[in-house]
Amino acid sequence: MIICMYDIICVTNRKLCTDDFTDRIKRIAETDVSGIILREKDLSEREYEQLSKTAIQTSGDKIILHSFDKTARRLCFRRIHLPLHILRDLRDKEYYQEIGASCHSAAEAIEAERLGCTYITAGHVFDTDCKKGLPGRGLDFLEEVCRSVSVPVYAIGGITKDNICDVIERGARGVCIMSGMMTCEDPAKYISELRSVEK
Questions:
Q1: 57, 121, 157, 164: which has the fewest C-beta neighbours closer than 10 Å?
Q2: 180: β partners
Q3: SS3 state of residue 58
Q4: Is the full-model pTM beyond 0.85?
Q5: pLDDT tens across 110-129, in order?
C-alpha cells in the first residue's frame, strides 16, 4: 500500500446530499482537497449568489464559483470554473486568479488554454451515473488532452480508487470527484482511501 499525492477537486451536487449541504461543504473544505467547485447549475443567479456567500463564509479559499461571472465579481471572488461557451465571452480575464474550463476534446482544451484558462477538467473519462447512457471517453482521450496543453488537466467522470492511478499515469494533474464526495459518510476518510492504493 502506498500513498499517492495528486490534486483532488470536489464538484458539488446538493441533490445527492442526504445531510446538510453547507455542513458537507465545510467538512470537505477541512480536508486537503485543492478546491470545491460550487456547481449548482439549476439555481437562478440570485439563488446561486446566496449559496455562494454562505459557502465562502464557511469554506473560504477552497471554493471555486461556477458559471456566474457577475456573481463572482459582486462577491469580489477570484476563482471561477466555466463551460467553454461562457469562457469564450468572458471579459477582463485578468480579474481572476484562477479560471477553470470544462473540455470534452483536445481541440476544446487547446481553445480553452488559448482563451486564458489556468486549468482544464477533461471528461467524462469513465462511465458514470451522472452521464447515464453516454459511454466514457476513455483513457486515450484523457492522454490526448493532457498532451495537447501546458496547463494542468483534471480527469472527471467515474473516478474511483480502482482507476485513479490510471488517469494520473496518463498525464492528469489530479481528479474531480462529485458523487463520492457528496454521498460518503466521512469526507476525510474517503479522500484518504482515494490516496491509499495498491500498485
A1: 57
A2: none
A3: helix
A4: yes
A5: 999 999 999 999 999 998 87
